[in-house]
Design a protein that fits this description.
Blueprint lengths: L8 E2 L11 H13 L10 H21 L7 E4 L2 H12 L5 E5 L4 H14 L2 E5 L9 H6 L5 E7 L11 H11 L2 E5 L18 E5 L11 E5 L37 H17 L1 H20 L4 E3 L11 E6 L4 H12 L1 E2 L1 E3 L4 H7 L6 E5 L6 H19 L1
Helix pairs in contact: 1-7, 2-7, 3-4, 8-11, 9-11
Amino acid sequence: MSLQHNEIIYLDHAATSWPKPPEVIDAVVKAMQDDAANPGRGSHRMAVRASRILFDARKKLSKLFHIKNPNDIAFTSNTTMALNMAIKGWLKQGDHVIATSVEHNSVRRPLYELERSRGVQVTYIEGDEVGLIDVKEIEAAIQSNTVLIVVNHSSNLLGTILPVSDIGEVAKKHGVKLLVDAAQSAGVLPIDVEAMGIHMLAFPGHKGLLGPQGTGGLYIASELELEPLLHGGTGSQSEALQQPLVRPDRYEAGTQNTPGLAGLQAGVQYILNETVEKIHTNEWALAQRLMEGLKSVNGIRLLGPELNQPRTGIASFTASNIDPSEMAFILDQYYGIAVRSGYHCTPLAHHCAGTEGTGAVRASVGVYTTEDDISALIAAVSEIVEQYDV
């Protein structure tokens, strides 16, 4: 029997948040109906309204992340593009960069490409079993040619929260720039780029910020000058051959996703109204409830920090006698529960957890997750494990 749309229990928020707040959907529709002109490409009223959408989105994001100048935010299509902009725009031949063993492939693969093509040197700091990083090891790895430290704020597999502020202090002490991957923390954990010493912040619009897919951005500190990833039309200085130096045009070649950014603006406003602190507290409590329930199921091994420790709303696990992909398939097809299995684009983190040979099942909560959703997953996993043990 096929499940109806409204019967799905959605626990895959680490991949993308769903459902979106009604105001996000309304903002996207309104932009497409009323403001669908090209932002920055004309002076007529529709183009001006479209430009206003982008400006308002930048202002709200600046408020959320404590960014002084909204024009220091360049919009992208996702976090991956933002990380590529930062990594490829900053690192040059012979530079040294420090990353960690809990990074996503959106960091690992661009770094590998620059190792291959530019001779960039990369040092990976090993995390422990739960993905925690010793800041002293980061400092010890700094060389005379180290120009960048790249860390994720929270692991998309383990839920581990890295000490970004402490890493920022080390970066400042040694004159090294800090790039933070906020794919799992934007809208979920407090972020203050000034207080935390963050020079570049890559973030998605479609996860914790509750916006549509195809949105994201990169904060670039005003003192940094990156080589643009894209070159082309900006609507400004069209007579010049080179890419404009003015921000954000320098980093935003081509037409922007105005309807998507209208939705992102509405999503950020929703978070500002609710507060990040309230959202994180609720998601942490739901994750704890899920971990407690799964811990009582025979053969289940939980990954990441122990109960009552800091983490985001991610609970990944393995079952001793069931392949993670099979577990996720059964949960979807027979119980209507959406989770994600596999390697989650982070093989290095699986190495930390000791699951590089199997992968894992990841359940992740969001702003609309309920206690009933958590109870349903616990009951389903318990039933599946019991059936396999017979």
